[in-house]
């Protein structure tokens, strides 16, 4: 085969490379990828101004490309221009759902730049897309607390708490205690401060200060005195420079009053004892005098003055004297004294009814639908007996009656944590999250409960009705309706369940 001439090769290679570059340049996407890679490399090399310039050019040629906006945000972040980093991260998330996770760092940058309202708006948008991000809920809670929206901040923390699991996260216990104090819920604040004190050693000072404030505001001065002693020993001078300096003065004044009162009571007690002793001595003296004047037992008085001793002489041998006197007199009728029966003792009065408990007062307030009074009372009852699942369950029921399913979920989770085998608390939890969570989350929890207790008619019926809802699965609904009828043939709801089964498409 003949080799190509040099003249042909001389023209072939330039033409080949020209066509290659012409083709590359004619492909916009290839050019875009090339320039984007170049800009990313400039960011990695620390040449932020050049990268930003190139990325702005790309943004003009290819508007609303999420990846370009993301790289712009990254360039500004690396060059410590937080505001623009947040702006471009937010724009990237809005332009392309693939970059929606950038809303969280955007919110952080807005907050760092002092724009809390924009940060809140951005984190709210993020949480609508990612409601199971506990860290984002905590961040939202911080922003809400800074805006003095304490109840909303508590709700955000509680959402994060649910995601952390049934037990409290002690890392945030002191923070939540402070929020409960701001919201006026002192019993719950004290519970969280106690959690921080026992489980979060880094927050010991905050926990002690919080407990001092809670005790003082509840006028529990004995407890406040103990906490003050601990604070003054471990953190000398801290109370005097805090907002509770006045509390320390009030507690000291209370102690002075208590000591004065105790001294007065002791003096009164001493006088009472002296008076009782004097009364006893006087009574003993009177008794001694009466004994001296009383005639002894077995002594008979003589009525014959001839026996001597006057009209009332004492006979030393009364029986022989009487026998002699009565000799020959004949029989005498001896009158027997009628002894009156002893009266029957009066029946004891019935014991007084027991004093109503805090839980009784809470239930009474709820019955009257006075939730502003009932809920603090329930929290006080929780504080008095925090291991009682019934109290937590009643608190959850009260929150549901008030229309607050989020707090109701927290309370019923505490009840389940204390009695995980209770079907009643499981069913209550499911009814709560049906209102507080998404349908997908409700179905997930319902199926988990059913797998744990498969022979429960209540759970079978709940499964059936969940699947029977619009958009559900009628075949699954029919299966669980039939299972309920098999498990509970005598249930009073059988006829209604059969109607629901027959109404399935």
Report the sheet-strand fraction.
under 5%
Distance between the termini: 80 Å
Shape: flat
Q: How do the strands of the widest beta sheet line up side by side?
A: 1-2
CATH architecture of the domain at 27-130: Alpha Horseshoe
Q: What is this structure's SSE topology?
A:
Layout: H1 6-26, H2 28-44, H3 48-61, H4 66-78, H5 82-95, H6 103-112, H7 116-129, H8 134-146, H9 150-164, H10 173-183, H11 186-199, H12 204-217, H13 221-234, H14 245-293, E1 300-301, E2 314-315, H15 318-326, H16 358-367, H17 371-384, H18 389-402, H19 405-418, H20 423-436, H21 439-452, H22 457-467, H23 474-487, H24 494-502
Antiparallel strand pairs: 1-2
Helix pairs in contact: 2-3, 2-4, 3-4, 4-5, 5-6, 6-7, 7-8, 8-9, 9-10, 9-19, 10-11, 10-12, 11-12, 11-17, 12-13, 13-14, 16-17, 17-18, 18-19, 19-20, 20-21, 21-22, 22-23, 23-24
Could you characterize what this model shows?
The chain is mostly helical and 505 residues long. Among the domains are: 27-130, Tetratricopeptide repeat domain (Serine Threonine Protein Phosphatase 5, Tetratricopeptide repeat), CATH 1.25.40.10; 168-262, Alpha Horseshoe (Serine Threonine Protein Phosphatase 5, Tetratricopeptide repeat); 355-437, Serine Threonine Protein Phosphatase 5, Tetratricopeptide repeat (Alpha Horseshoe); 445-505, no CATH class. Helix content is 70%, strand content 1%. The chain contains 24 helices and two strands. Helix 2 packs parallel to helix 4 and helix 10 (173-183) runs antiparallel to helix 11 (186-199). The protein is flat, with a radius of gyration of 45 Å. This is Tetratricopeptide repeat protein.
